Amino acid sequence: MIIQKFLSRQPRLLDLPSRDARHVLAARSWCLLRQAGLDPRPRLSEILLSESAGQRFNILMVAVVHVWPEPFAVHRMCCATPSLDEGILLRAVELAAMGARPQFDALLFEMLPDDARNLVFARASCLYVEES
After folding, report:
1. Domain total for the chain?
2. Phi and psi for 32 in degrees, rounded to 5?
3. 60-113 tens-digit pLDDT
4. What's the domain range around 33?
5. Based on the number of CB atoms within 10 Å of its own CB, is 71 exposed (0-12), middle (13-18) or buried (19 or more)?
6. pTM above 0.70, yes or no
7. Secondary structure class of 102 (helix, strand, coil)
8. Mean pLDDT lowest among 8-17, 48-57, 114-123
9. CA–CA separation, 12 and 9 (whole Å)
10. Alpha helices for the chain (secondary structure H)
């Protein structure tokens, strides 16, 4: 089962590549701000260092929380490690950015039906478009 891989010791945010750590913090901020009824996009733009990246991440998170089988679980902002859901999202984004669709599908096959995986893949693939 692919999820077993994520149940082992999670890396610390400080040990992750900068982009991945920013995505974890962006996901946490997004969930916290949405729960408070606030627009997360300005904060996402700060975390991701780009307004357009913040917009694309917002679109991804809207899709993720819509299709995720359980409420998307994030750790507190101060937590040094990603949650299971945050770790899965990081890996899914990485695979989508590489265009590794078979591996992306294998990662999320047990969790999400085809149409949900298609939606998340499309949104995650857009995170790394080149900005002019």
Report:
1. 1
2. -65, -45
3. 999 999 999 999 999 999 999 999 999 999 999 999 999 999 999 999 999 999
4. 3-7+17-128
5. exposed
6. yes
7. helix
8. 8-17
9. 9
10. 3-7, 18-35, 41-48, 51-67, 84-98, 101-108, 114-125
